[in-house]
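dumping this here before i forget
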Amino acid sequence: MPFIADRLSAIKPSPTIAVTQKAAELKASGRDVIGLGAGEPDFDTPDNIKAAAKAAMDAGQTKYTAPAGTVELRKAISAKFKRENGLDYTPDQITVGVGGKGVIFNAFMATINPGDEVIVPAPYWVSYPDIALMFGGVPVFVACPEETGFKLTAADLEKAITPRTKWLVLNSPSNPTGAAYSRAEMKALTDVLVKHPHVWVMSDDMYEHLVYDGFEFCTPAQVEPALYDRTLTMNGVSKAYAMTGWRVGYAGGPVALIKAINMIQSQSVTHTASVSQAAAVEALNGTQDFIPKNAEVFKARRDLVVGLLNQCKGLTCKTPEGAFYVYPSCAGVIGKTAPSGKVIASDTDFVSELLEAEGVAVVQGAAFGLEPYFRISYATSTEALTKACERIKRFCEALK
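structure:
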């Protein structure tokens, strides 16, 4: 269509949302479908957070706020960064976005010129490259194979940096693999970045509180203070606080960058919902007791799913350090024939045939930039996960 902007030709709809919608459509048509595509906790938002939102409505906090977010929320975010990450950000160094995705969108729009390169370790969250492409950026994918724990190495980072590099995007723990960088691994990366002062760091810490087996989370500006002035430390309340639908992401960074992000927000969505911001204040300032309890539930689910998947013929699954995803390899089933008669030539074929034959919806590794794998979100009930893994095992056994 001639009236559609050329920039849209470079991007595609989110594959993870597409899988979730497909599963919902099949359920609506009467199919028995278990959806493991959505990165959304099945826990309800805690009562104290919901109560804070209700109180805000009753108090009339339903008007416009500053594009950067309310002062109260930005102070709560500053306190969180200091308390949990040892990072000093004043309220004028904080921006509140419409989810973490909104923060990333605004940051890239504010900084990327056509031809600027954005280093994206693969596997990656599906939106990083598309948002960069939207503003004329060039995603530079760096393969992070299973042999490196799906993590970027210092040597590979060094090779990827060019004079045109604008950003490195780091996501730990990772969507889609659950891989998380230890302090030593992070320090190796920050040592490289210190040598290249033109490279900015976007640290997506959305899954910070979902780490297991005693793993200690760290973030780049915390590990290497020399990077503080060129790091955007991004987080949000969606995952740890079970607040995906409230749409509150936030970031701390240099004043000039934050001002640019806020200027863009003032001319687009203006701000995230005032009531959601009030709820986020309570999330950050209120009790945190439920977070480790929820993390224990997620850990048990992780162990269950990893154990069951490793019993499936042709599949292997690494145990991740965090988040609520596993990223099993389906290399052992490539070339086999599904019950439908279709030869499985890729992970895309595998997930398509699995959905058709057994009603289990997962996301193909191709969507995340590393094949042949697929992503399972274990942010759903133990019963559903057990049943889904039984179906996956049955499907693998039916392959010829």
